[in-house]
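Treating backbone geometry as a discrete language has practical consequences that deserve illustration. The amino acid sequence and the backbone structure tokens for this protein are reproduced below.
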Amino acid sequence: MKTPKLPPLPPSEITPPERYFSRREIMAGLAGGAALAIGPTAAGEAVRLKHSKNARFSASDPPSSRKDITTYNNFYEFCTNKADPARLDGRFRPTSRARYVAFKTVLRPEEMPGQRVPVLRWPYVEGLRMDEAVHPLTILAVSLYGEVLPNQNGAPLRLVVPWKYGFKSIKSIVEIRFTERQPPRSWNISAPQEYGFYANVNPAVDHPRWSQAREHRIGSGVFAPRVPTALASR
């Protein structure tokens, strides 16, 4: 008997789009989570975070007590005994010195032929300052025109920073880290004399090899005249 091969399940069928379309909140949440994870707190001090209940999801059972949830933990990094993580967590000290967010792209040369060529040092990496990462214009995109983000546009997750040059908007992100020091960036490693950390669009500042005063709009046609470069409002 032959079993019919079913088409792959699209991501939109796995996670409802409305759950992940709040991409700015996701990034803000990441930064908030970083502050929670790395910020020093007194023993037993609770850090209060803003939250809201999603009315679409509910349970009839009463919630477990905070004491039970925080004293019965399957956390082998501390101990195999469920009660011990709460006793041993006092030795865990990250700091609150993180100032940057570092991103890394997937490394799959068997699927991405460009990674077989040493044009850049793979995998692709980029970074933002923390305040840039939580800016309202910074987007962690999972969709395009209301549909799942296509592979060529950086599926399943890409960064969009509209006031910076395109190479800052890293695609197909597989790793996000918070770091104290300015993280490495692929184009800066390859050509530091041309590509700095900030890479903000400024029509008045030329690139070392060309003017940035005018731009060619996508979809306007090969022979369309260039127009004055738009400066994104921050």
Observations:
- Residues 201-234 form one domain.
- Residues 1-7, 11-15, 31-44 have pLDDT under 50 and may be disordered.
